[in-house]
Amino acid sequence: MDVDDVNSVERGHDMVRAERASEGGRSRDNSPRIRKNSRADGLSEGQASVSSPSATLSPPSPYYVQRPKSTSGGVSVASLLQSHNPEGLPESSLPSHSRGSMQHEAHSRPSESTHRPDAMPEGTRAYSSQPTPLTHAEALLVHHYTEHLGRWLDCTDATRQFTLGVPEKVKHCPVLCHAVLSFAARHCREGTTAEAAYERCIALLIERLNEDAASQDETLLCAIVILRFFEQLNVPSSTGSDDEQHLAGCSAIIRSSQGHHFVDPSAPTLREAAFWVYVRQCLYNATINQQPPDIDFSLKLHPSPGQMRDAHPLARLRLETAWANQMTWNLARVVNFCFDGNEYPNERAHRPQRWQELWDLVQKWLQDRPQGFNAIFEGPVDNQSSFPDIWFTADWHVVSFGFYNFACIMLLRYKPGPKFAIRNVSSLSPTDHQILSHARAICGASKSSPETVPLAITVCHTIFIWGPLVLDPKERGQVVEILTNFEKNHVWPTTWIINAVKDEWGVSATPASPT
């Protein structure tokens, strides 16, 4: 790519600009956290907050370019090409698929007349009709992704498209292959392999974004949401510093390619499945930063789960996916309502009505959802644990259960009405007890299904809402145990979260765990 090509990208491709560059109020450094000696109401900007994670240097984002007079960081595509050139790495540090595929890609890019796999748009140079063989080491990582990591992305998709569909494509799509390799290697604590695969993926990603058809390429979108998980696993556990680069990039691509204002909650395509992964990733950052999620809420779900009728036996999978994603969308709307501080004065008068509409929406989902979403067992709390045993038959059932309880927590915490901006929580109100009841349900389900990682992720970010209300030392210890085990078993950085909530409790901090 020469300078003219770079300039054309910077001029013509708005899809690679992050939306957050123009949203100055969304900086993590200014975001509220768990409030010390107060409830996490999120209604007073004057409340004290836990200090934000310190900024650390990290690779620049491929999705946005420098804006004049912008307070948010940016980088040109040209500088990114230089900083993410994998050829600058020692060849031995690159996965063999990276070294071999550079030459293979140059000879295997199909012309416009060459057969192309289904659903691949014209101009997709980064997709080869001839598969590139995996080495034994690479195959192990792809297998690890299939066995353990695909379900992170498929947690509301009963058809398991990221588990079953993505591995089929990695031999044909180098961008997707290196995204999977980087994620799997990081989860396996193979740092050198993970970084090399990530560097190669970024270089290929930049090349792909230079093509007109990039925004319509579902494999590109899949690669970016997978890279977001790599990015989250790479966050320093002691500080929690997160640049959210791939989250911003995913937002830009989704918005640039939105051809209509409807989204199918049953996620019949891999592209739509990637959209729902993005929504869930947005909820994590929105809750921790206590800011509205970067989601286009003008989108409408169609068809709604209640409208779906199909006699085919496999239609049940489509229906359950739709119900799970309906709850995901309900939660996103609730979070947006609770953290939206940009209302006009005349709209504030309608907040109680909007709150009631959202509460009714969430409760209607609980009432109407299929019976299969019910827990197969829910045991009482015993002397050994503060949290009940709650078991479900599928990931999308338990994740929907967690999202339902989280939506209730948010609506109870941010219910419009008179309240003190700062209040000592040495004694709990009836509303506080309701919130803790929902929080215990989330923790109990997570403890009962430790391999359902998305539910542990839900614990990680919802604790910023309900954590200060936990007063019982035994219960505090078990919350910390859930977070500690999550980092130990899945490399998700939780030490900084534990330290933040311990600071609220007036307890000494936990040393950072090596990852």
What does this protein look like?
By secondary structure, the protein is mainly α. The chain has one domain (128-417, 427-505). Helix content is 51%, strand content 2%. It contains 19 helices and four strands. It has helices at residues 3-12, 77-83, 96-108, 136-153, 161-164, 166-169, 174-187, 191-209, 218-233, 245-256, 270-289, 315-339, 345-348, 351-368, 395-413, 430-448, 453-466, 473-490, 495-505, and strands at 262-263, 300-301, 377-378, 390-391. It has a two-stranded parallel ribbon with strand order 1-2. Strand 1 (262-263), helix 11 (270-289) and strand 2 form a beta-alpha-beta unit. The longest helix has 25 residues, at 315-339. The chain is globular, with a radius of gyration of 23 Å. Residues 1-94 and 98-125 have low confidence and may be disordered.
Task: Provide a brief overview of the structure.
51% of the residues lie in helices and 2% in strands. The protein has helices spanning 3-12, 77-83, 96-108, 136-153, 161-164, 166-169, 174-187, 191-209, 218-233, 245-256, 270-289, 315-339, 345-348, 351-368, 395-413, 430-448, 453-466, 473-490, 495-505; strands at 262-263, 300-301, 377-378, 390-391. One of its GO terms (biological process) is positive regulation of transcription by RNA polymerase II.
Q: What is the typical, i.e. mean, pLDDT?
A: 78
* Domain count: 1
Shape: globular
Q: How many DSSP E strands?
A: 4
Subcellular location: Nucleus
Biased composition (Polar residues): 68-85
Organism: Pyrenophora tritici-repentis
Biased composition (Basic and acidic residues): 8-32, 102-119
